[in-house]
């Protein structure tokens, strides 16, 4: 097993490699806005002390931003005719937009016209993980904000119903490999989900729409517990913890659940159908390699955060995250 020092060295090497061509750097704002990380963290600490369950939605928002047009803040844009990314079905359950605006306003007060919404959202996601007792990593910065947000482009988002083939293809389209897939899926260790995201596994697995039409890969006792919470296929309001018992804590329990066939989504269960992802899950289900997983997660988050970014003279620095400047 690699030592902590070796893991840190590998992490830094991966960060440098992934950011070299994108002009991102951890010290990008060292002169123009040296307080940016402190400003963001102050707002995050305040918010999560009052509502710790907000961490997962903010992390999810960063994922959803990066998988559509890259990490350019486009998921934050409003549209008068409801055709922006946030209006698409996969994003209608996103929350935390007002909070992102509040953080951006605080950053603008400290450093006007300097820090992009894309960078603010990336820092928010890192702090959401860290403040949930997960890993900390240096965030390469220097992203610019995009001005285009189109609802039907959210087809690039990995759906909770996807099998391993679809998941691998969607991740590969963002230059993320199968290890990134299993590592980033473990973000489901925090947060909740609406029943409708997985209720077909309980009542309509093959399309027959009846209580016996169940997903046979889901562990029976867990299935019964989910059915007690999600009473029907039409339940659109009930929320279920993705990692029951520790859904506010970033830990390795996700791997334990998936290894026991208690992953909430099709996409979680699908990770047991590939040799590599299954082996990774079983290794970390032991709970013996926390430092290794945390280092892996940091590397994959940096890699995802570097996806199709706008830098230099591309894009803009939005004053408000929900609207373009002009």
From TrEMBL:
Its cofactor is heme b; Ca(2+). InterPro entries: Haem_peroxidase, Haem_peroxidase_sf, Peroxidase_pln, Peroxidases_AS, Peroxidases_heam-ligand_BS, Secretory_peroxidase. It is an enzyme of class 1 (oxidoreductase). Pfam families: peroxidase. Its EC number is 1.11.1.7. The active site is at residue 64. SUPFAM superfamilies: Heme-dependent peroxidases (SSF48113). Ca(2+) 1 binds at residues 65, 68, 70, 72, 74, 85. GO terms for cellular component: extracellular region. Disulfide bonds join 33-111, 66-71, 117-321, 195-230. The keyword Glycosyltransferase does not apply. Substrate binds at residue 158. Binds 1 heme b (iron(II)-protoporphyrin IX) group per subunit. Binds 2 calcium ions per subunit. GO terms for molecular function: heme binding; lactoperoxidase activity; metal ion binding. It is found in: Secreted. It catalyses: 2 a phenolic donor + H2O2 = 2 a phenolic radical donor + 2 H2O. The record marks 60 as: Transition state stabilizer. GO terms for biological process: hydrogen peroxide catabolic process; response to oxidative stress. Residues 1-22 form the signal peptide. Ca(2+) 2 binds at residues 189, 243, 251. Keywords: Calcium, Disulfide bond, Glycoprotein, Heme, Hydrogen peroxide, Iron, Metal-binding, Oxidoreductase, Peroxidase, Pyrrolidone carboxylic acid, Secreted, Signal. Heme b binds at residue 188. Belongs to the peroxidase family. Ascorbate peroxidase subfamily. Belongs to the peroxidase family. Classical plant (class III) peroxidase subfamily. Removal of H(2)O(2), oxidation of toxic reductants, biosynthesis and degradation of lignin, suberization, auxin catabolism, response to environmental stresses such as wounding, pathogen attack and oxidative stress. These functions might be dependent on each isozyme/isoform in each plant tissue. This is Peroxidase. It comes from Lolium multiflorum (Italian ryegrass).
